[in-house]
Structure to design on (635 residues):
């Protein structure tokens, strides 16, 4: 059980115009799964390698349980890496791969053999110690790599896009396995992914990064309900953005004034955002009520369990998702009335770019 | 684990054709490589062999007895050749691993220049290079020493070895090393257990080149240490110029023996280079 603290962590590569990791402050609580999420080139893999000790930070500090580990070389840091490809050492058997960390610590053969069997049991691959890595399927190789990483009970487990090379169903299996093994050993886990869905499904907390900078750290649901910025909202697929000016729990927009008690900003320019699932249709006919606006269906997709609409209202477009219980299916061109429930509206600071 | 599907007849036929062609080309290659040595072999056993005759008029083991005779200096020459070629091989490999890695893995300013400078001694005629080096070595007391000859052989040997290793490392992914470090292996353990097995076939090929280039050196050896160091190649050239064709033939065969032995040992790695590449990145 190790808590990892990054403070002011910066990594600049020579010749690069901006740092790969820029003054990152992050507290990774002990025994949990943390996702570093972001598009490629956002500095997440660099952050992983900095924690592992494979890169030396330009400035800033990394502490395990409050003690700086900057002076500790990679091989003694107890932060084990697992990559998406080149999972296993191809010249070694499965057993030699799993026992590698013990071998380089000069453990006896008997100890290594029994621990290897134990670990293969844990990842549900008993009896495969004598196979060669190439004889295993991708999913099996992944399990062996996990066993190899965990055999010395690392302080921190670092996974770089661990599932991106797997098929969809294998991926679900591996997610479940990683979660189960992680919970059993309670090892602090950090994984890097560009897949927002994967981060949401697997992680206890997500750190969203972009351009070397941390945008927001929170539990997965917070990213949907209370994103910290327009950029975060966009990354999580929320394109319902309406600029305006807010005051006294209300926001005045080109499409009217909305009651919005939940907000990061209290006065001045702001952007209204609301999740597609939170927007409701209400009956047309009567004049628009509070938090309502009129619009027209641009396009729609009926997907059985839900329907997804694109609605035009003034100069703005809104995405709306209704579940299968919705009263009716609208067709393209239908006039509609949208209602933004006040408790579902979230006001953001206007974005700079 | 799935069983491979049974090959369909078309595929089996094309496989058989491939096998046949491969066998044929191997035989042609063997003839191409071995044929030049047949006259040498015949010369070495000849007693008397003049122009219009297809085969010698008389046979003799004399030249082989001469070669085996201590007065022929063959054994000390082999010893001198090995005393030079083996250190050259080891040093070339030791230089080629880090240098090849730097050239194959990293981009840095002046890389092209470095690559060119490594190749340069092989572009300029060897005689010129050796002459220049000889003057310097005379000044520093390296002329007529084994050290001097080893250093001068190192120039062409190392440059080939570095280029081979640069190719190996260009297709090498260091991620496995990072995993190894994070699992608790220090730099040496990581090199020993992860890097070395990955580059081993390429390293064998590089070493083979280095050895053979040193073994072959003649002019450089003569110029730097002609008086004291008598390598096998010097002996062979002397015999070839001396008019005793039988002896020259026998000596030549002795001279190529290690090359053949090394080639056989390394042949599996020569084809293995592509396997190492396949492991490489991207």
């Amino acid at each position: 059980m190790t808590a990892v603290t990054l403070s002011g962590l910066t990594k600049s590569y020579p010749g690069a115009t901006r740092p790969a990791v820029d003054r990152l402050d992050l507290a990774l609580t002990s025994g949990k799964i943390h996702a570093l999420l972001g598009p490629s080139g956002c500095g997440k893999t660099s952050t992983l390698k900095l924690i592992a000790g494979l890169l030396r930070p330009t400035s800033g500090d990394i502490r395990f349980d409050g003690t700086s580990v900057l002076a500790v070389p990679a091989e003694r840091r107890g932060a084990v890496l697992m990559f998406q490809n080149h999972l296993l050492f191809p010249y070694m058997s499965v057993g030699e791969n799993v026992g590698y960390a013990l071998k380089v610590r000069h453990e006896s053969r008997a100890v290594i053999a029994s621990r290897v069997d134990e670990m293969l049991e844990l990842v549900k691959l008993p009896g495969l110690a004598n196979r060669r890595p190439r004889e295993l399927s991708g999913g099996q190789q992944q399990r062996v790599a996990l066993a190899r990483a965990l055999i010395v009970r690392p302080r921190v487990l670092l996974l770089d896009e661990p599932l991106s090379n797997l098929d969809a169903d294998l991926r679900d299996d591996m997610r479940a396995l990683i979660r189960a093994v992680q919970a059993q050993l309670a090892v602090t886990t950090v994984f890097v992914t560009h897949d927002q869905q994967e981060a949401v499904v697997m992680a206890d907390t997500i750190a969203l990064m972009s351009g070397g900078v941390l945008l927001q750290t929170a539990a997965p649901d917070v990213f949907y309900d209370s994103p910290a910025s327009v950029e975060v909202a966009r990354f999580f697929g929320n394109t319902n953005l309406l600029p305006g000016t807010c005051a006294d729990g209300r926001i005045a927009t080109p499409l009217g004034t909305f009651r919005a008690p939940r907000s990061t900003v209290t006065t001045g320019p702001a952007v209204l955002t609301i999740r597609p699932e939170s927007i409701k249709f209400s009956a047309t006919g009567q004049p628009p009520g509070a938090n309502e606006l009129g619009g027209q269906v641009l396009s729609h997709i009926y997907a059985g369990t839900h329907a997804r609409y694109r609605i035009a209202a003034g100069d703005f477009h809104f995405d709306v998702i209704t579940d299968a219980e919705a009263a009716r299916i609208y067709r393209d061109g239908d006039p509609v009335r949208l209602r933004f429930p006040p408790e579902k509206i979230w006001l953001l600071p206007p974005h700079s770019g | 684990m799935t069983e491979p599907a049974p090959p369909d007849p078309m595929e089996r036929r094309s496989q058989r054709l491939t096998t046949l062609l491969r066998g044929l080309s191997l035989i042609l290659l063997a003839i191409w490589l071995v044929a030049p040595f047949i006259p040498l072999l015949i010369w070495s056993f000849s007693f008397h062999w003049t122009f219009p005759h297809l085969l010698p008029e008389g046979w003799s083991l004399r030249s082989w007895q001469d070669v085996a005779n201590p007065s022929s200096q063959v054994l000390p020459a082999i010893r001198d050749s090995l005393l030079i070629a083996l250190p050259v091989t080891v040093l070339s490999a030791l230089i080629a691993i880090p240098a090849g890695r730097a050239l194959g893995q990293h981009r840095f300013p002046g890389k092209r220049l470095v690559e060119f400078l490594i190749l340069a001694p092989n572009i300029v005629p060897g005689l010129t290079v050796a002459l220049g080096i000889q003057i310097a070595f005379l000044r520093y007391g390296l002329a007529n020493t084994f050290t001097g000859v080893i250093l001068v052989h190192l120039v062409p040997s190392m440059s080939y070895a570095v280029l081979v290793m640069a190719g190996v490392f260009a297709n090498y992914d260091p991620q496995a090393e990072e995993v190894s470090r994070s699992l608790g292996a220090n730099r040496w353990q990581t090199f020993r257990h992860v890097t070395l097995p990955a580059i081993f076939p390429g390293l064998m090929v590089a070493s083979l080149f280095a050895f053979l280039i040193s073994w072959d050196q003649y002019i450089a050896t003569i110029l730097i240490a002609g008086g004291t160091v008598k390598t096998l190649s010097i002996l062979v050239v002397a015999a070839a110029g001396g008019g005793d064709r039988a002896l020259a033939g026998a000596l030549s065969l002795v001279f190529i023996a290690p090359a053949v032995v090394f080639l056989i040992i390394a042949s599996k790695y020569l084809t293995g280079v592509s396997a190492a590449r396949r492991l490489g990145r991207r």
In short: The radius of gyration of chain A is 25 Å. Chain A has a mean pLDDT of 89. Chain A has ten helices and 20 strands. The interface with chain B takes residues 49, 52-54, 73-83, 85-86, 89-92, 100-101, 103-105, 135, 148-149, 152, 158 of chain A (CB under 8 Å).
